[in-house]
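Hi C.,

You asked whether I'd gotten around to modeling the 223-residue construct. I have! Everything is below, sequence then structure, no commentary in between.
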Amino acid sequence: MAERDYVFVMTYGRSGSTLLMGILNSIPGWLLRGENRHAMRHLYDFHRSGLAERERVDARRASQPTHPWFGIESFPEADSLHHIRALAEATLLRPEPDTRVSGYKEIRWYDEDLPDYLDFLRQVFPGARFVLNTRRLEDVAASNFWTHKDDPLGRVQRIEDRMLSAAAGLGDVVHRVHYDDYVADPEALRGLFEWLGEDFDAGRVHEIMATPHSRRGKHRDDS
């Protein structure tokens, strides 16, 4: 398995993250996939369950074939992480031969144990970094994605607060960008590119921003 870098976009629905994904995928060697409905969360639950049951049982007794939890005492943590990474690479990420940076964007980062989940992702994908994308919450909550839910503004506020709180514990592993800032002036993304160690090509970014993404039309460019 080729060594590469990993970047994941953390956000919520209708934040402009599909546009951000397009901008990042315009960088040579980048291949970030779209949403997968939190599929990695199932693998996190699998891994966490194996570790929890390994610690719960008496190892000596569980190693006997007469024990109802026979074998769980030897649940192999390192092997589990290795094979989860291989499965994710083969199914969700599917990097191409020239891919330098792999990952995906997801809008479902709302679980209470988010800090633990992020730690898990960093174990599965060594060196993983996270781009946290936000947007003016009143505009987010007014979209059709949220208006049918109870208290849409309060809901997206709680999700954003949870993401920001989890990100605060990761230091420079996370970089925050704000949709309203970079749509008004693409130069607002220059700091992101510096953090990523990539060249900022203003012309290329302008071109991507002029291309329709997701269900939206052409993105505003007031610069």
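If it helps when you're writing up: Strands lie at 5-10, 30-33, 101-106, 129-134, 174-178.

Thanks,
B.
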